[in-house]
Each structure stands twice: as structure tokens, then as C-alpha cells.
Amino acid sequence: MTYEHIKSTLLIGLISLSIVLTWQLYTFQPEIALLDDNTSRYIPDSLNEEREERVITDVVVPEQIVVHKQHEYTMIPGNDGRFKQLYEKLVGTNINEVNLLATGPFPKHDDRGGIEIIFPAPVPGDVFLELFEIKKEEFSLPFSEVDRLFLYIDASEQVHMQILSSEEERVIEVGTTLSVKEFEETYLEKFDEFKSVTTVKEQSSYHNRLVESVYIPTEPVTVKRLSYAITPLSPEFYKQSLFTDPSSVKYYQQSDGEDSYTDGNRIIMMQNNGLFMDYINPVFIEPQERSSKHIVQTSYEYVNGHGGWTDEYRLLNWESSDIRDEATYLLHVNGLPVIQFDGQGDMALLLSRSGTQIVNYTRPLFELDSYPIDASQSIQLPSGEDVIKELNKQEFFNKERLSKVAVGYEMIMRNSSFVTMEPHWFISYGNRWQKVTFEEEEGGTNGLE
Fold first, then answer.
1. From 296, 297, 324, 341, which residue has the greatest number of CB atoms within 10 Å?
2. How many angstroms separate the Cα of 195 from the Cα of each of 68, 188, 288?
3. Does pTM top 0.90 for this prediction?
């Protein structure tokens, strides 16, 4: 074999080896398990079942509707069909400017009475207009937030509405197209059919003309204890929905044994044995440009975008600062909020935004079945007046710090197959929810938890 033949043979061998090594490098995958190795990289049809968008009025809902009759009050329960009926008719009405310079009082005092509608958190102006399907160009709302509404029949025999902004201490009056006859016959004249309530504070203790009363039942409250089977939500659905490139997402196990999924930037961390999810999308560029949309609007659209309204979640609260904006949507069952999850935290969708990006999203990874498996036991809770008496026994209780008094559910999960909804009294005191217990409850303890 000549020298030239040897060089040619070596060159061909090196080229062949290069081709083999290049192919191995191209097809190499590290020893890290991809999410659900046996599943498709696209969202399976089974994950899309019953994932539908909801309109804004499904998630921004009043927490109380109170009927006024002179100086007496009754409340339409959240699970009463007339609660939803009135709200649907209200947001379906046309409104027109009547008096944008009104000075109050709020609510108006009239012998014919009226209906007060209380939202759980201030409703941003843009969201309020969206509730009524009104374009900004069609109606000039003179403040940025709406807290309460009051419907009444004015002298011209039309149903008018007061709109109250607590933050700006202003009230305006608008006309509506609600039927006066239906308003009277279905609600005002049915005053005695609803639950009797009273105000926590005496009217004489209010120092201004724009009154925001805290209403409590005057009689004991009977609520069913409910048990539900639950269905786990697949992390695969949220992996497919929340990551830009789901195929690049890797699976890891954390030091505490919990699962996590990351694309090297964003991460989903599973908590409480996979019952909850914490999605983090870090933003490294500073300063962040502020979004022109309110956090309520952004969070609603974000959850809507991936069909995340698995149960009945309603806006509970929102906060906004120069650094971070947050919105919380609380689970409701049978018209009542689920305040706690067996001491582990709220049954809520919590979304945080920095600049224009959602940077944190926490939520339960299970949903309730449509109907309870057990609703046979009714629990009688003390009246709201008894709650206030119990609170007054506390040495440092200050009624001025009390913003809400409500019956709600505490969710108890004794195994991973079903949950029990235990009814209790809760208060929002100093911007923090607490459970109220009585002497006959909780092994003889009483007070706040």
C-alpha cells in the first residue's frame, strides 16, 4: 500500500468517525426525566374537557345584598336564587348620568326602602364598566374604584342607583332601566322573606354622610355541613399552559420529596403532596414598566386564558404597590366562602404581577365534584349579634378594626379522596381573616383563632 493510499484511508476513517460522533451529539439526551415521558407534548383532549372561559360577572360578585326598609334590614342569602337574579338584571341594565356631583347621604333614606349591594373589594373603574358592558367613551365614571351600590325608586318613578367610592369619599347617582314593578314586587315587598340583619355599629356612631355598615344576622344561622369527593388536576395541563415551550420542561424532585417542573427559568413547585401548586416566573429586568391594566383585569384574563376557573372562585381582594400587584380569588361553595383549608391556608387563586408580567400564581390542584356526597347534617351557628358579644369579651378587641363578619366554610381534608366543609363564623379584623369559636366549640375554648 502506497503512502498516498494510507493517507486516504485515514482521512476517510476520520470523516466517518466525525459523522458518527456528530450524530450521537445531536441525538443525545441527558439523564433527566422529561415531564410525563409517555404523554404527548400537546395538551390532550382529556385535559381540555370543561375548560371554558367565564365572563367577568362570574368572578366579580357582590358578597352581600341587603334590603332596606326604613331603619330595618334583611339580607338575601347568597344561595337564594334571587341573589343571582338581581345581580344579573342589574348588570344587564342600561345606565345614564343623573347627578355626578351628588353629596349623599349614602345610602339614601326613603320610606319605600332600597337595596344595598356590597362588593368584597373595591371594583376598579374599568372593571366596573365592563360588568355593565359599557365603553369608556359612553360613560364618564368620575372615580377609580367602586365599593357599594344602592338601588332605590326616585320621585320620577324610576329605579336609580347610587355608586359609592370609599377611597375617594364620593358618591354619584345614575338612572337605570330596571323595572320599577319587578323591583318592588320581587324584592322590596318580599322584605320579610329574607334573613333579618342589623348593623354592628349604631348609626349615631358614624361621623360622615357616606355610611358603610357591617351587617350581621339577628337570628341563629343554619348551614349544612357538606362533604365532596375531589378530582385531582393534572400538573401536565398547567405545564402545557404556563410554559412557553412545554417540550423543554424537566422534572425534578425537591429535597422535601415534592415534585417540581422547570424550563430553567420558570418553575412549578408542588406542595402538600401535590394538592397545591406554586408557579414562579422570575423577572430579572429592572425597572419594570407598569401595566396600563388593573391587576384585577390582568389576573382575570390570565386565569381565563388557560381555563383555570375549575370551581366557583370569586374576587376576594387586591393590593397594588410600585413593586408588586396581587389579586386573590376565593373558592365559594353554596354561596359561602371557603376561608381556610384545615389550617393550611386559603382555598384561593393568588396571582402576583411585576410590571406587565404575572410572576407568581398559586392555586389548589384539585376540584370538587358537582354535587356533595353528604349534605345530611345541618349545623346551627349563633347569631351575628352573639358573635359580637363573644368578641367584646376579648380584652383588646376594637370594634373600629372590624371590617367584615361572615359565615364561611373551613375545608377539612382527612384523606386525598374527599373533603368536608365545616361552617363557622369568621371576621376580617385588621385586614386579617380569623375564625370565631365559642365555649361549646373546639374542646371548650372560645375567642379568635
1. 296
2. 12, 13, 49
3. no
pLDDT on residue 244: 87
In the prediction, which pLDDT does 446 show? 52
Number of C-beta neighbours around residue 320 at 10 A: 15
Query: Residues of the chain whose pLDDT is less than 70?
Result: 1-51, 202-208, 284-288, 341-345, 440-449
CA distances from 449 to 72, 410, 437 (A): 32, 12, 8
Residue-level pLDDT at 361: 96
Cell 353528604 belongs to 374
Are 310 and 233 spatial neighbours (Cβ–Cβ below 8 Å)? yes
Fold of 232-364: TATA-Binding Protein (3.30.310)
HEC per residue, 215-278: EEECCCEEEEEEEEEEEECCHHHHHHHHCCCHHHCEEEECCCCCEEEECCCCEEEEECCCCEEE
Cell of 53: 372561559
**pLDDT for residue 342:** 54
pLDDT score for 137: 83
CATH 3.30.310.160: which residues of the chain?
232-364
